[in-house]
Amino acid sequence: MTVISTIGTNVGKDYQPVLMCNKVWLKKAGKDIPKTLDEFVDLIRHYKANDMNGNGNPNDEIPMSVTEAFLPYMFGPAFGLDLVSGFQADENGKVKYAYADPENYKNYLAFLNSLYREGLLEVEYTSLNRDQIVERVSNDLTGIVFDFSWQMSMLYSPSLPYYDGTEETAFVGAPPLSGTHEGFYVGRIELGNMFGVNAKSQNIVLACKFLDYAMSDECQEMYQWGIEGKSYIVDENGNKKFTEQARDNDWLQQLGINPAFVYPAQQSVASTDELVADWHARINAEIRPYVKDPWPFIYSTEEEAEIINTYFVDIETYVKENATAFITGTKSLDEFNDYLAGLESLNLKQVLEVRQAQYDRFLKAYKGN
Question: Which InterPro entries did the record assign (predicted)?
């Protein structure tokens, strides 16, 4: 009998959040996809100063449309920071809190503040949402977005007034931006959900049988592909292909294939590759090597959980409030050392001790396997 303690449900490195560039605007600007922060700033300055959508109004362009939540994904790595996970370990296994990095995090904030002061990061960036960005895209008002890669050919590109299904008329994914450090993207933990049974249940065996079937190849094939002959076919080489009707995402959802928030289920790169545009699947494969693993999932002891639950919520609130203040300039970066002192006063040291102990256990277990 084989005992399996975990089964990955998330896709960890495919179709993750990426920088996306309006390729029509790039061509009009006579520029390539930016690779560095300097090239990126040069590009969005051009967008801000020119009538990129050709409507006769050179002042309605919004150079980039990125929600507050995605700014750390987009720019943190260029400064060597995994601000998505928050915690990261150096080459010696020493755990650090990225938001307490005395040099790199300060430089990150200074960069965003410079964008804000120049009008390249909009004043109301903290309230911007995806629906507003889609509206801008549909009116050809913006040249840069950042979101989960799935949205590339499934949402943003189809919203463009001139998109014809080709890469040349689309929002296309780009490699991560590099700055003082080589850029990377942050992936997801494949262990995305937990399955539990009440200890008082009279049907624990039945629940386990359900889970065993739900995660079987047979069941997951139905979840990811649907019904052979209706939603997919198998070609002469044994490869599954979605039918033409299945390419209608609304119809596919009604059939119950890959529905959101229905568990337990495993995400599938193969079926996603078939759903998105061919050029999108190719770009996803090209970007995959740039995606790094996030901070790992590590179980906490009861004592560790108490420390994290007691202190970390206040730390996160403090970090978020100060990030907004530094970026918008309501607080000067001359006060950055005071910010670091404030983190220490919120018991960051104790939290780091917990994360270090957890990471040490993780490394020991990982090497043991």
Answer: SBP
